[in-house]
UniProtKB/TrEMBL annotation:
The chain crosses the membrane at residues 33-53, 60-84. It comes from Shigella flexneri 2a str. 301. Keywords: Cell membrane, Membrane, Transmembrane, Transmembrane helix, Transport. One of its GO terms (molecular function) is amino acid:sodium symporter activity. One of its GO terms (cellular component) is plasma membrane. It is found in: Cell membrane. The keyword Transmembrane helix applies. Belongs to the alanine or glycine:cation symporter (AGCS) (TC 2.A.25) family. It is a multi-pass membrane protein. It holds the Pfam family Na_Ala_symp. This is Amino acid carrier protein. The lineage of its organism: Bacteria, Pseudomonadati, Pseudomonadota, Gammaproteobacteria, Enterobacterales. The keyword Cytoplasm does not apply.
Length: 122
């Protein structure tokens, strides 16, 4: 059970880190391989280094990941504010709020193609 927890934690944290690279537009092959090598080195280091040293390294790595996540949140803040304002405007008008990506050409680069297709009209 412990091995399953450790494996799933490693995979989950790797996926979080890779998604951060994609959002920050650092998803080139060199950066992804660097992340993979760092992940592999951390796993190997966890088996070879002393426990107190590994805890200190884990704290530093988690702080770096938190900084990356906070950066992503700050970069998303204007987008979230714009979309939330439109949602509240539609609610005040008494209509069912609908997200229309065509109203937001400035955030088009951050949206996946066809991610917001209206399936209710199909």
């Amino acid at each position: 059970m412990v091995i399953l927890f450790a494996f799933s934690s490693i995979v989950a944290n790797y996926i979080y880190a890779e998604n951060n690279l994609f959002f920050l537009r650092l998803n080139n092959p060199k950066a992804i391989w660097c992340l993979r090598i760092c992940t592999f080195a951390t796993v190997i280091g966890g088996t070879l280094l002393s426990l107190p040293l590994m805890w200190q390294l884990a704290d530093i790595i988690m702080a770096c990941m938190a900084i990356t996540n906070l950066t992503a949140i700050l970069l998303l803040s204007p987008v979230v504010h714009t979309i939330a304002s439109d949602y509240l405007r539609q609610r005040k008008l008494g209509v069912r709020p609908v997200f229309d990506p065509l109203r937001y050409p400035d955030i088009g680069r951050q949206l996946s193609p066809d991610a917001w297709d209206d399936v209710s009209q199909e």
